[in-house]
Specification:
Strand content: under 5%
Structural class: mainly alpha
Largest sheet: none
Number of helices: 10
Order of helices and strands: HHHHHHHHHH
Shape: globular
Radius of gyration: 17 Å
Length: about 210
């Protein structure tokens, strides 16, 4: 049950993150190969780090090569689709896709890490890493300060809270499906609520910006 459920949630997360990577590359003078690379590292970067640390073999993108084909197809058709939208719409879509990918990957990464025998705190941190590392690689490849390190609106902290909510539901014996969906929606909800309301971590803004 858990395996098939995680395949479903990972599929949503991969598609969302791949699209976020493609949208992030828009306007950056990246060639088609570069667009695919950005989409690939965004979609699979966090999972690769997780699999390396918990010694999960074969890695997810190798065991599910169909997702690589989907990412390649999305990168190929992206220019045609992107031209149909305004910049403001594209930015909003990017934020939503990034939040959805963050939510599904953080919750799923926590679940996989628990199944691998990690204690609660390392499992949560591994879930957060699964959620944020692909975006970090994306931003590094695009030569900009990674969002996870610079966005003053809750990002990694949203994944941290949502991953702990998954742990809590796991301890209460709540079904895997409900735990994954609720924790994912919590992460996405926190992220997008703060984005729309423009809520920031004020203390950090005051102390680390001029």
């Amino acid at each position: 049950m858990q395996s098939s459920l995680l395949v479903f949630t990972d599929f949503i997360g991969i598609v969302a993150f791949a699209l976020a990577g493609i949208l992030a590359a828009q306007g950056k003078k990246v060639d088609p190969v570069g667009v695919f690379v950005i989409a690939f590292v965004t979609a699979f970067g966090g999972g690769m780090v997780r699999d390396l640390i918990i010694n999960n073999r074969p890695m997810y993108w190798i065991a599910h090569q169909e997702y690589v084909w989907i990412t390649l197809f999305m990168a190929a058709v992206a220019p045609t689709l992107i031209r149909r939208f305004r910049d403001k719409t594209l930015h909003t879509l990017f934020v939503w896709c990034d939040a959805v990918g963050l939510g599904f990957f953080a919750a799923g990464g926590t679940s996989v890490s628990l199944s691998a025998g990690l204690p609660f705190l390392p499992a949560v941190l591994m879930g957060v890493c699964t959620g944020v590392f692909g975006g970090l690689l994306r931003d590094v490849f695009l030569t900009r300060l990674p969002m996870v390190m610079s966005d003053r609106q809750p990002y990694a902290s949203a994944a941290f809270i949502g991953s702990w909510s998954y742990i809590g539901m796991h301890l209460l014996g709540i079904s895997e499906f409900v735990a994954l969906i609720v924790s994912t929606f919590l992460i996405v909800g926190i992220r997008m609520l703060c984005w729309y309301k423009k809520w920031e971590i004020v203390r950090y803004r005051a102390n680390f910006t001029k």
